[in-house]
Protein: DUF1445 domain protein
Amino acid sequence: MPPPILEPIVVATENSPHAVRLLARQGKHTSPTAGYAPGYIQANLLVVPRAYATDFHSLCLRNPVPCPLLAIGSATSLISPTPTTPPLLTHPFDLRSDIPRYNVYHAGRLTASGITDISELWSSADSHVAFLIGCSFSFEGALMAAGLMPRHVEMGCNVAMYSTSRKLNPAGVFTDGTYVVSMRPYPQDQVERVRDITRPYAAMHGEPIAWGWEAVQELGIADLGAPEFGDAVEIKEGEVPVFWGCGVTPQNAIMRAGDKIKGTVMAHAPGHMLVTDVREEEYFKTQATVL
Amino acid sequence: MPPPILEPIVVATENSPHAVRLLARQGKHTSPTAGYAPGYIQANLLVVPRAYATDFHSLCLRNPVPCPLLAIGSATSLISPTPTTPPLLTHPFDLRSDIPRYNVYHAGRLTASGITDISELWSSADSHVAFLIGCSFSFEGALMAAGLMPRHVEMGCNVAMYSTSRKLNPAGVFTDGTYVVSMRPYPQDQVERVRDITRPYAAMHGEPIAWGWEAVQELGIADLGAPEFGDAVEIKEGEVPVFWGCGVTPQNAIMRAGDKIKGTVMAHAPGHMLVTDVREEEYFKTQATVL
Structure:
């Protein structure tokens, strides 16, 4: 009689970042990551063929509000962008499987959506470079703690995200990118508080880039009721839309680069983020300015 | 008989950065700094009352293309923004006198232009914070070395600079800033070379933010023949305008903030830069990416 097959022992508490990643690796966690491992930073992933890595790095550095860079690396090894930034992951990891779901692009077009493993597409360590980019989940916790519940959290849906006409600073092959923004409605007289609360989250898009009804036209948004990504949310009497830089921006830049990009680009599927081992407060400690 | 009064001994070669600063300190160098101490980085200066320093710092970090931060500090002491950036000044200095000419702003309005010393306005070390911001002089040398002489250098005039409608990412009190751009015309078929040559100068505005005739309207520039700053230059048949982020942007942001800024803001006078002790190649060595 053969010995019983043992499941790998998950040496992590159930809702720890490490546990979420292990379950994702095993294909057992395939849902969005909002609400998992609360207090830990979650990150957007973008993986580009090595030939475009320098241009994409430059795109992030030139557009830190929509594309705040947290780390760069291979599938199993990451480097922080500054010597004082803490490592995002403190256990062995594999970016090809540790995220619940992925999107895949070829020549700027989405060719696979929501797959749970990209190991076969990213088989060689040298072929691609991974970029991890900050996410607004972090500052939403701070808004909630201040009694400024984001509407989509209240409604139990995804945040509303819009393509805009606001240009990114071009970088190499990425000449035609524009900001993607997330929108949360707030009463006009709370906008300054909302700005103050989200401002310190510099590596997670920071304070809004625009607010008020006049910003809708200025950003080239045709219809607030029809977001390009996520779900439309109600805007109540006396509220105004408030817009933040959004981590979907880099995927949008890949799409706009079209067939200038040869090879396979991979990314997390929206809402299905990399759950990191860094606590928000730990990250802020390292973000202290010289002032 | 009293002993003869001795002039201070300038222990610096005539065209060294240190010599230029010492002569400026003595009121003997009051002209623009272009062409002085070639190969050394020159920097824009912006000095804000301490109450606005955090917001201004955030403005720079959120808009690194027009406002690339080289150092922050007091009149006599500077801190580099990253641990690997070399110190800008390696001799004792005083930012209140070591620049040939200064501008002064109150409530967003220019109240003094071209004065040679601001020691009386910035008498207390704690009252203000200084920001040093990269300048496009550096990449102009690289363009010239590649046979792509900027037109204004050829014409012996100042570079053409324009206010645009392209918004800065807002930061605290600085909500209404827009890009100021510098413009150099180049043949359409040289634009990619020009982009490639200036791209590595990340701390000096890097590659252009826009180019071609369609960019003129897109940036909201009414008349290329009437730059808001500097001098108009000829655009020849077959050439297109190429636009870069410009270090006048922060002064423009101060003006647009208007009477939201209480107290005295000081800056270098356009073209009259801080000549630093850092060689361009030395700076690039420290800018190596992790890729």
Notes: The mean pLDDT of chain B is 91. Chain B touches chain A at residues 53-54, 57-58, 61-62, 64-65, 72, 79, 81-84, 129, 166-167, 169-172, 195, 199, 202, 206-210, 218, 245, 289-291 (CB under 8 Å). Residues 127 and 231 of chain B are 35 Å apart (CA to CA). Residues 137-249 of chain B form a domain with the PSTPO5379-like fold fold (CATH 3.30.2040.10).
